[in-house]
Amino acid sequence: MNKSCSDCLNKCAKKENFFQKKQCCKLNTLDWLSNIKSPFEYQKYDIVEIQFKNDRKEFFLNQEKIPLDQGNIVTVEPKSGIGYDVGIVSLTGELVKLQIRNKTINSNTFKKIYRKSTHKEINIWKFFKKKEFSTLLKAKKIAKNLNLSMKICDVEYQGDGIKAIFYYTAENRIDFRKLIKEFAVYFHTRVEMRQIGYRQEAAKIGGIGSCGRELCCSTWLKNFKSVTTNSARYQQLSINIQKLTGQCSKLKCCLNYELDTYLDAIKDFPDFNIKIHTEKGISKCMKIDVFKREMWFSYIKNPNTWFKIKVKKIKEILEKDQIAPPLEELSTANSIQKTELTFKNLSI
Fold this sequence. Notes:
The chain is α+β, with helices and mostly antiparallel strands.
């Protein structure tokens, strides 16, 4: 059995094979059971995970018990039932059970694997894959000429070229009946329009994030969870929409990665809206430092001066329920003076 694309990764490290890496290693699953021989070889799991273009993965039934390994090119039954489709085996064996369980897929809806692809089928499949980019450019021009408020972001041909799937994004409902007629006349193929979200669009196109790495959605992230500005507030991040949004113009998915850790740490903090009565006046919390377990307080009458106080001290003050000493005595470090910048108009 082939290892989890290790040979492929070595080849993809070279510059000339960068685009090959984008196709064959995208959303790849590590088969950590590949070197372990199963004692039930005669009862191999007959469902196989197959990857098509970009992030599209589907499960197929290996009814004929064809011996398959990762990286094999196979001919499968399409959803439409007309013709055939071609994909690459991405996962086999017992790990497919876990993938199906994570996606909660009904096992009665699986299509069949016909065979390992022949040379003729592979050549036809490669021909239409090369044709997809020019088709995308022409499709965008046709949609623009028809003044449709939609964005066609990707095109995927079926393995035999009988059908082409056009992925698009749009804010509102689009009447693309005229567009489909134009596509059918120009491209001479069956046309399917499939609307996707902006996060799915970023996953298909790919790119480099602000962290300097490839986008999570185009490399390993499969399920999109809702992200709100509360995720940033809990982590004490400034609500700067330009910094918090990704290439999909939505809030970055990585805002949820450490959210649970922050929520667990914040449970031990006093209420942020609490006000402390001191000998010099009433003070309120301005910000917190989760890692150092400190809170910054300032007098309501003088909000520009902040004092850093340990959480332990704040709890002791709240338990005593008495007038506390001034913030200067409670602070563990020098206060921070927040000043406002003013700009003068200079005449040239």
